[in-house]
Amino acid sequence: MPGPDEDLALLIGAAQEAGRIALRFWKRNPRVWDKGEEGPVTEADHAVNEALLRRLRAARPDYGWLSEETPDDPARLETEHQFILDPIDGTRAFIAGEDSFSHAIAVARQGVVTAGVVYLPALGRMFAATCDGAATLNGAVIEASRLPGIEGANILTPSANMKPELWPGGVPDLKRSFRASVAYRLALVAQGRFDGMLSFRQGWEWDIAAGSLIASRAGARVTDRAGRALRFNMAVPKADGLIAAAPGLHAALLERLQAAG
Prior knowledge:
By secondary structure, the protein is of the alpha+beta class. It has two domains: 4-141, Fructose-1,6-Bisphosphatase, Chain A, domain 1 (2-Layer Sandwich); 154-258, D-Maltodextrin-Binding Protein, domain 2. It has helices spanning 4-25, 43-59, 91-95, 182-191, 205-217, 247-258; strands spanning 32-34, 40-42, 64-67, 81-89, 102-109, 112-120, 125-130, 136-137, 140-141, 154-156, 175-177, 196-204, 221-223, 238-245. The strands form three sheets. The protein has a seven-stranded mixed sheet, sandwiched between helices. A hairpin with a 4-residue loop joins strand 6 and strand 7. The protein is globular and about 50 Å long. The model has no long low-confidence stretch (mean pLDDT 96).
């Protein structure tokens, strides 16, 4: 059975292939379809998904498969390992010709992510980690922020998440920024460029699996919005929000979120 390092090497090669495919469509008016509440999808998403499906399943035919662009097969629930991926995370940014879209690809084993990559082909950035190794960017070790509390925090989160009704303990005074790709937000936290990220919406596993491992291995604390550990390959593959931040900041944010009204 391949270990995390072997799986990571496979994911890196697959992500590089995905990037080459995506860049053939980027800024070239790809065909776009609307998936309703799930947002838009492009012909590039489908092309990347098909290439990853062929490559990854050929290499690991006994691994389950969970992808945003493949109809879910409950057979994955009976497998020990699974691929969990978003062929293009940040599709709206991709359509707009922005460079912050990513490929997020992970392997999970018994509910825990063991290898993951977040690759931004337009920027040439490959974030990667295994469950027993360091988080890296293009092979160099990266570390998350060690900010001890809220003061001076720089957070990635949508503006809607700063509404007073969401913060029983008071809206924190912090600097807010945003990036379209959830996976990239997690990678930026891992890199220490931001102190944390918040998402209060239910999040699909394919958006968060790879990035959550990378941020965690970089030293951030990563949980759902209630502070619970994340579990993957669930029957309903969603997490109840997401908090990824420097440990001291994470604890301070959680206190504000859980304070009695």
